[in-house]
Amino acid sequence: MEPRRLHVACIMDGNGRWARRRGLPRTAGHTAGEESLSDVVRAASKREISHLTVFGFSTENWVRPRAEVRHILGLHKKLFGRVKELNENNVRVNWIGRPFDEPGAKTPLYVQRAIRKAIEDTSSNTGLVLTVAFDYGSRAELTRAAQNLVRTGQELTTQNLASHLYDSSLPPVDVLVRTSGESRISNFMLWQIAGAQIYFTERTWPDFDAVELDAAISLVKN
Ligand code: FPP
Predict the structure, then answer these.
(1) Å from CA of 122 to ligand 1 middle
(2) CA 165 – ligand 1 centroid, Å
(3) I want to staple 135 with a disulfide (CB 3.0 to 4.6 A). Which of 97, 118, 189, 198 is the partner?
(4) What's the mean pLDDT in 127-149?
(5) In a mutational test of the pocket of ligand 1, which residue from 184, 205, 208, 209 has the highest number of ligand atoms less than 8 Å from its CB?
(6) Ligand 1 test: best mutation among 60, 72, 135, most atoms within 8 Å of CB?
């Protein structure tokens, strides 16, 4: 039997705490978080997971100290630049978030370019779909979807609204992971997680690994 293909979504929390416990600056925690993500992507690509969606940067994160924001943005450039290993693992990059040309959108040009290039350079891969939520907020996504329906005079139905989300091809989330002992949803994929199991772990994101990923997907296997 064809194995069930799952959609796993991750709120990657606790980079700051990981760093603090080691007497390191917060930025070192984010650097470790990006490396952990790269390991988790590789592990996910070898499991019965068709979609991995991660919360890279929220619409609320722009108010963090400038140097920290700059560092996290640089890590996105690094992640989107990992084309060689993404291609080796047959991973296709995807993005959800506020459209770059929308009023209030803040994604700098170099991040826009990195996102576009990673999408293009991995577009022929057929395995795991890695969706990075960048400048993403679920309320903004849902409000925009509803506004699009109103503007175009369409009926407000569940199906019509779903078809106006940032990426309507994303399947519903099967498992939502939140690391670092927090049990909040933080405005992440409110529509898509309606039927998801939630896996909370005490581990900080830089310590999240393949064993943890297996524990998370075991919530929905069989
Ligand atoms: C939370 O840690 C994490 C984020 C701000 C978003 C996730 C960012 C990364 C994992 C870095 C690299 C990721 C990508 C996609 C390139 P926190 O600062 O809130 O930790 P704390 O709650 O312990 O302070």
Answers:
(1) 24
(2) 24
(3) 97
(4) 98
(5) 205
(6) 72
For residue 157, report the phi and psi dihedrals to the nearest 5 degrees.
-120, 165
61 is catalytic: yes
51 Cβ closer than 6 Å to some ligand 1 atom: no
What's the pTM?
Answer: 0.96
Which residues lie closer than 8 Å to 158 by C-beta, 6 or more apart? none
Q: Which residue lies with its CA nearest to atom 18 of ligand 1?
A: 16
Residue range 32-81, pLDDT digits in tens: 999 999 999 999 999 999 999 999 999 999 999 999 999 999 999 999 99
Nearest to 206 by CA among 68, 26, 32: 32
3-class secondary structure for 180-207?
CCCCCCCCCCCCCCCCCEEEECCCCHHH
What is the distance between the alpha carbons of residues 18 and 204, in angstroms, rounded to a whole number?
6
Q: Return the SS3 of 90.
A: coil
Instruction: Inform me whether the pLDDT recorded for 3 exceeds 80.
Output: no
132 within ligand 1 shell (Cβ under 6 A): yes
Amino acid identity of residue 68, one-letter, is: E
Any residues with CB less than 8 A from the CB of 25 and at least 6 apart, and which? 19
